[in-house]
Write a structure and sequence with these properties.
The protein has 293 residues and is of the alpha/beta class. It has eleven helices and seven strands.
Length: 293
């Protein structure tokens, strides 16, 4: 008889449609165990465009595009190169948010390490753009850690180099990745982004609006001009498709200072409320000990 592999070593089976539920369970259990081992409980999730680049890179691309456009050989070539100039100008405008995401992530990581013993960790989708900027900002702080919840896509790079290696993941199933974004999150920071960012934003708002997420989850929309043009949510109120109170589900910000102050104040308020509730649940003789714990 030839040697027979055990079922859990049979890759043909494990990658087959019949084992889909097992693969789903792996994307729940393996991250859960790693989070436990790494003592990860609270994350600050940054969403945003994968297409943003640093200011330096964007300005360099624009300078090269403008130079090429001035030396075009004919009208057809000139039109093509002028289009490249337009694209480069857009990247310069978007680059502001790369720099702001990096700085905000740096400041919130520094605050977490100095004031909260590193309790709150920056978490991103692990890719380029705004995700890279946030992981990079956390890495700018000595000892700063951050998560990268990557997803296997045919057109996107692997995890950016600023993710803490022990906290880097690559998911196959979007819904399992979304679960871990939501489960550990204590705040959301939404930078300008495309369809993926919109998907994450509106799913989180829906879960909060419907009470499926009951915990406080301060949500920050960063970039006033962008969000004003993209989402006129007041129109939903005017048409009666959402309630006036639903506008309180998020805070708009256009500066790192304001965003940082909002996040810190919100997180500390949640902590005070949670500690107050926990104290109320303790018998009188246990309250002092609870404070020490």
């Amino acid at each position: 008889m030839p040697e027979i592999d055990k079922a859990y070593k049979n890759l043909d089976f494990l990658t087959s449609p019949a084992a889909r539920t097992i693969r789903m369970l792996c994307e729940y259990e393996e991250p859960r165990q790693r989070f436990r081992d790494q003592k990860v409980h609270d994350t600050l999730v940054f969403y945003g465009s994968a297409r943003a680049v640093t200011r330096e890179q964007a300005v360099g691309e624009l300078s090269r595009a403008e130079l090429e456009a001035r030396t075009a050989a004919d009208d057809q070539e000139k039109r093509r190169l002028e289009h490249q100039v337009t694209l480069a100008q857009r990247r310069v405008r978007l680059s502001r948010y790369y720099e702001d995401a990096r700085e905000l992530a740096r400041r919130i990581t520094d605050w977490s390490m100095a004031q909260k013993k590193g309790r709150y960790l920056v978490c991103t989708g692990g890719g380029p753009g705004i995700m890279e900027a946030a992981n990079r900002g956390a890495a700018d702080v000595p000892g700063g850690r951050s998560l990268g919840l990557g997803i296997s896509l045919p057109f996107e790079e692997k995890l950016n180099p600023y993710v803490t290696p022990e906290l880097g993941f690559e998911f196959h199933y979007f819904f399992m990745r979304k679960y871990w974004f939501a489960y550990l999150a204590k705040s959301l920071v939404i930078f300008p982004g495309g369809f993926g960012t919109m998907d994450e934003l509106f799913e989180m708002l829906t879960l909060r609006q419907t009470g499926k997420i009951k915990k406080p989850l301060p949500t920050l929309l960063y970039g006033a001009d962008y969000w004003r043009q993209i989402t006129d949510i007041q129109t939903m109120v005017d048409w009666g498709t959402i309630s006036e109170r639903d506008l309180l589900l998020f805070h708009r910000s256009d500066s790192v200072d304001d965003a940082f102050d909002f996040l810190v104040a919100s997180l500390e308020q949640v902590e005070r409320e949670r500690n107050g509730m926990a104290e109320d649940l303790q018998p009188p003789e246990r309250r002092d000990q609870f404070k020490e714990d």
